[in-house]
Amino acid sequence: LWRDFPALFLVDPEGQTIRPRVLNQLDELIERGALPPDAAVRFEAFGIRTDMKAKIFEWTHDSFNFPAAVIESEDTALTIRTALQEADEVAYDLVSGLRMLHPIMDRDSRDAAAVKAALASVIRQVLRRYWSSLEGVFREQLHSPLLVATEGERVTWLDEWRDAVRTSARDVLEAALDDFEADANDLRRQQKARARFYGGLKKHLGGDL
Questions:
Q1: DSSP-assigned beta bridge partners for residue 56
Q2: What is the mean pLDDT of residues 95-101?
């Protein structure tokens, strides 16, 4: 649920998402000085996963804690949206790289289903580890004073987030490759996977790999 933070809590100037009205009320309290910007606020979020009909598969519950100022600033909202969008782009880089490990077109058609299933399993595990490792970083960085400060300080906040994304993605990819039993052909595929992933990472985040 934390990855939907912008839709839940932030103003969307483009109007594609509309946050709950209680957030607008809190925003007004901050503007009037009735609620200090550094006041800690806590939200409980409940949801359900359904088949879009009558069947409920799962109830969900999560909580969010952060300073009230986070919900007020459009600049802060843009910074958070940028951070999560870039993390999504790096997740795509992970998937793109991992697909190099199991090139279905290189296999006999009889093995295509098994190879596809193996690839899907690897991708699910890697993405789960990737997003899990970033959740704690994101929640912690919501409390950083840099997030609600000047433009330069928000850039610093975003750079810190990018470092965390870069480290997490690199670690989970290399761990997946370490678990991959390989012959000579598969070792070449590993190198292709690294090249594809690190190329995308450099494009989306820049900086040192």
A1: 50
A2: 85
